[in-house]
Design brief:
heterodimer; A: mainly beta; 6-stranded mixed β-sheet; 0% helix; 56% strand; B: mainly beta; 4-stranded antiparallel β-sheet
Amino acid sequence: GENVEQHPSTLSVQEGDSAVIKCTYSDSASNYFPWYKQELGKRPQLIIDIRSNVGEKKDQRIAVTLNKTAKHFSLHITETQPEDSAVYFCAAIQGGSQGNLIFGKGTKLSVKP
Amino acid sequence: GAGVSQSPRYKVAKRGQDVALRCDPISGHVSLFWYQQALGQGPEFLTYFQNEAQLDKSGLPSDRFFAERPEGSVSTLKIQRTQQEDSAVYLCASSLLPYSNQPQHFGDGTRLSIL
């Protein structure tokens, strides 16, 4: 089955710096890779996603890149702000499923003012 | 509705009791997923509905877990004879279309504590 590894587990940056979170997946049949932001006690919030037919997608300060050959994808946040502080999860679709997401263990991002 | 709604937000039960958790997906969303999130971990898949049909229950940890969506909208996750290891946040997510590459929108979850 699908396995998703996420690094780092914690990340601390200064406000205005960039943050990069990396994930690898194992199932070559996976074709959809969302990223979720979860604040303490709140719901996972979809912030960006990418499908396997593209290599990069950008939405304002957030971008995601996908390397299908190497089976890894990354989240890039530029010009970080304190409100970006949260736990970020990457996920991949379990191949052959109806959309079951397999999540990484999360990255706790702290943005220091 | 505006988003996925789950109730109750918090549930405390004694070991051995039965509990029922409710999910009200976004109106018109065909697909509905249940996930379990342990403290400090990512969500883990439990089960999937397409309208009223439960097409995948491979993630349910035991036969004490049962889910239904009888009219293709509201779903209920029931846990019988609860045990301490059932303590977790139970998340519901819905997506508009019945395809695997569709965005899933989550509710706030039900935090279940088993004493």
